[in-house]
Amino acid sequence: MTPPSTPRRHRTQRTVPAPWDDPEVLRRHSPRRRARHATRESAPSPLDLRLGPAALGAWAAAFWAVGLEGEQSWVPAALAAAVAAVAAIPLAVAASRFHPPRHRYDPRPGAGAADGSAIGSPAASLLALVLTVVAVLIVTASGSWARAQDPLTRAAQQERTVTLTGTVTRSPRATATAKRTTVLSGLSVDTVDGSPSRLSATVLGDADWLEIPMGTPVRVQARLRPADPGSGEAAVIGAGATVSVMGPARGVLGLVAGLRDGLADAVGREPTADEPGPTGAAVSWPPGARALVPGVALGDDHALPAQVRDDMRTVSMTHLTAVSGEHVAIVMGLALSALGILPRWVRAAAGALVLAGLVVLVRPDGSVLRAAAMGVVMLLGVGAGRRSASLPALCAGVIVLLLLDPWQARDYGFALSVVATAGILLGSAPLAAVLSRHLPRPLAAGVALPLVAQLACAPVLVLLRPVVGIWSVPANVLAAPPVPVATVCGILAALVAPLWPQAATVIAWPATASCAWLALVAHRFAQLPGASLAWPGQAGGALALAAAEAAVIGGVYWWGRRRAHRPRRHGRL
Question: Are 306 and 423 contained in the same domain?
């Protein structure tokens, strides 16, 4: 029989904690590296690249098809679509025979056949690629046929003088050269010598166009010349054209022009050297700060001084005045956060209305449409209650936009927007994780985002301007913090200006201060040595720069892997 004192002795021993049970002892004696890995975030989800080949195939097909010249340019595109449709038949048969198993283990005969008879997913992937290419080629062929029959295209090919009626679609912007000053604008053509037209023309005109706001109906008598192959416009209106205004600005473009003018009035004009600011206070903003507010908030950079424009182009900051995914993310994030207590389908519907208003406000160009299409796909995910997938949304947006307008395949703005977004989605998180070993996490994320965007856009930028710069990443890192303030305050000021101009002036002040910082950063970094280094142009220069970037990234990755494995080998020995 057990003595009664024994249980007491055991209970007393159990109440005395062991040293390794003390959390403070464990924290003090545990290696710091192990503690960091124990508290790191969960592993990222795998990349969903199923729509990637279809998006790339659609882009390549549209790029080739819209570049065909001649009145019968639609014929090769139609023949290519027919050949691709025939090739899709065996792929459809192979894909229909595939029945994926419900579980990881499939006991059915032939499931693990060595001859590959049970593999059907590659056929389905190829089928999606081919069908996407067929759809893009059919849309491009029909669009090329319609463009060839349009009277604007025929008049431009004949280079004859015609009388046009239409609506100005861009705010006129003056570009000065050593010989003359050219005003850049756009015209949506309604009639050509009385015949209806549905195309548009690029205006490279005289000073007569400078005072014509966006949305104004005009009558133009000019000698046309054809646009470059693959251009979204069908004709070019050069100097010497006679233009007459037929009425005030109207429609959606007229409303947008009024909002832009209200924002410009709220911000104020650029003061001269002997004048104070428009409010009477001696606020000395950097040159171009006031004109930069409509550019950052609404994408309206027509009044931006040439020197500020050159500085921003030198340090790759022109994306700030091209409304794209960053602006859509800021506005949509605020809107959805404010509606967080409502049902998800209400938030999705409200987000769609906000997105449509933003697209109308900033004009639907290539980058805006790409960001809007991506936002629509994500709003569908919000309405369905599913997690949004950014990379599939980007690929779906590219396909949809090319189906709506295949001529965007050769637009530099569209290309820069897509490659920058893809680079951020693929490379920003891994690079931020690497940099976080040596930098604080917010700073690492702030450095990683402009770095991967610059690396992705550099080969395309070389096609536009054969130079590279070494100060683009530091300039964009310093310019990033005030961009949300300038965007939100600028949009709010533009919306409030027609109703309450005094309040709009107050709201626009933070946007002006933010843009003053942007202008100062662009100017300072553009003056540094190495800000603009010559590089070979054309496709060869772009490929050489892409190869150099790939070699540097591969070398850094190899060096990092070798350094990471070296301590383990010594520890095992």
Answer: yes
Q: Cα separation of 296 and 172, whole Å?
A: 17
Assess whether 320 and 415 both reside in one domain.
yes
Q: What is the pTM for the complete model shown?
A: 0.78
- 3-state SS of the chain: helix, strand, coil percent to 5? 60, 10, 30
How far, in Å, are 152, 170, 217, 219 from residue 225 at the CA level? 10, 20, 22, 18
Successive 10-residue mean pLDDT values, the chain, 573 residues: 49 53 59 42 61 93 91 91 93 77 50 46 85 96 93 92 93 77 90 93 90 92 91 90 91 86 84 49 74 87 86 86 73 76 80 83 72 74 64 86 92 85 84 82 81 86 86 86 89 91 92 93 90 85 88 81 61 45
Domain of 126, in residue numbers: 52-101+117-149
- In 10 A of CB 436, how many CB atoms? 16
Tokens of 323: 């409304």
The span from the CA of 473 to the CA of 475, in Å, is 5
CB atoms within 10 A of CB 371: 26
Q: Are 59 and 208 members of one domain?
A: no
